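Lab notebook, bench 4. The sequencing result for the construct came back, and we need a structural model before the next group meeting so we can plan mutations. Quick request posted to the team channel:

Model the 3D structure of this chain.
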Amino acid sequence: MTGVKCEVTDSASVNAAFDEAETIWGRTTDVVVANAGITKDTLLMRMSDEDFDAVVDTNLAGAFRCARRAVKGMMRARSGRIIFVSSVVGLYGSPGQTNYSASKSGLVGLARSITRELGGRGITANVVAPGFIETEMTASLSDDLRKTYLAGIPSGRFAQPEEVAAAVTFLASPAAGYISGAVIPVDGGLGMGH
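Done. Here's the predicted structure in token form:
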């Protein structure tokens, strides 16, 4: 597998990464999965402008920058898939995460606006909203906190990364050609599709 690096908070870096990838593969981009994300959690009254801006710049504006660059080739091809990875927190909120929740909920508006703007050109834009996933981060949770989180998930477990990847793969496939502006929760029922 070949990869290219990019800093999503910098438009020049995003453009250069797409240029490099398209040179390597010899064609324009067919599918974009915007998955960059950071957190800087704290209570609203303690949150600095810098922490708010950094999270929104990476999570929301970074996705915008990637989509903006990708649609140039997609419009010429009259085909393309844009998939934003949000979070269940972006759909129902979370204390101490106003910046993160705002950035992740903004992806829904971004996808729906792209759908209305470019849907007639064969471009779809959708959102996958994961809940808690079995990762190194969730493995480091205390037993008490893990039990608290699990108690709120109807399926009674955290998702496997492959389950999120399956939703993304489906949205990137021809089978999802008529799905656009949708939010697919992968959260075991935690958010109930908010």
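The longest strand covers residues 123-130.
Will bring this to the meeting.
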